[in-house]
Design brief:
6 strands; about 50% helix; about 180 residues; 2 domains; mainly alpha; three-stranded antiparallel sheet
């Protein structure tokens, strides 16, 4: 079965976590950043993995069980590790691969020029990591945020520090950060 098919069918559960933990990153000669998973056919962009988590969160309206939150946090960390390892690998690539990869980033820059600040990464990665540091809410931290109902259930009090009521696509209500210890 192909990675793409498996990712499209995945939900926030231990099987998905196990799958993600087996993922290995690489870069093609043409500068494509991708993952492979032993036992599955083909390869898939790293962004496809991040995009799947984003879609799952949106489908669940930013509400998840404690198990889904824990699994999602571990998956998020692994996606960050894959991006970081891929960045390190890219720095060591030959000049042609770097040229092709940078041309791809240049295309992304022009493609997003009127919708987002300048960036040197894909739109999915931009949404996942907030590559300009301080751009606001980023999906990589989504499992640290709570809806008001989740917050009150988890912590037994009303939330006091709201993040945003409209920061993510599909978000219908405010998200809250957990209380500081």
């Amino acid at each position: 079965m192909s990675i793409k098919t498996v990712l499209q069918r995945s939900t926030l559960n231990n099987d998905f976590l196990s799958l993600v933990n087996k993922a290995q990153e690489n870069i093609s000669f043409w500068g494509n950043c991708y993952i492979t998973i032993p036992g599955l056919n083909e390869e898939a962009p790293i962004d496809m993995l991040a995009a799947r988590v984003i879609k799952l969160v949106q489908q669940q309206l930013f509400e998840y069980s404690r198990d889904e939150r824990n699994i999602g946090s571990l998956i998020s960390k692994k996606i960050d590790q894959l991006y970081d390892a891929n960045d390190s690998r890219f720095k060591k690539c030959n000049i042609l691969t770097k040229l092709f990869g940078n041309l791809r980033y240049l295309f992304d820059l022009f493609n997003g020029l009127f919708s987002t600040p300048a960036r040197d990464c894909s739109v999915t990665r931009w949404n996942w990591r907030g590559e300009n540091k301080g751009f606001g809410l980023v999906f990589r931290n989504i499992f640290n945020y709570y809806t008001k109902k989740q917050y009150e259930k988890e912590f037994g009090v009303s939330p006091s520090r709201s993040l945003s009521s409209h920061g993510f696509e599909g978000q219908k209500e405010g998200l809250w950060v957990p209380p500081r210890d």
